[in-house]
Design brief:
about 60 residues, mainly alpha, about 0% strand, flat
Amino acid sequence: MNPIEILAALGAEWSPDFDAYTSGALDASHIRCVLCQMAPCSCPEFGTPEYFALHDQRRSRRGA
């Protein structure tokens, strides 16, 4: 299994801007966050209830 297949099996999500970044067409400061969809990232601090609520919302989890 290659690394991409392993990450996909683990449920990894990629920024929609990742390909543009890796090709050099986009600066890292302009990559949208997978979770909040903002560039630069504006997620709540990791580990806070707000962060996990955003994570659950993005992953379409309810009542978790």
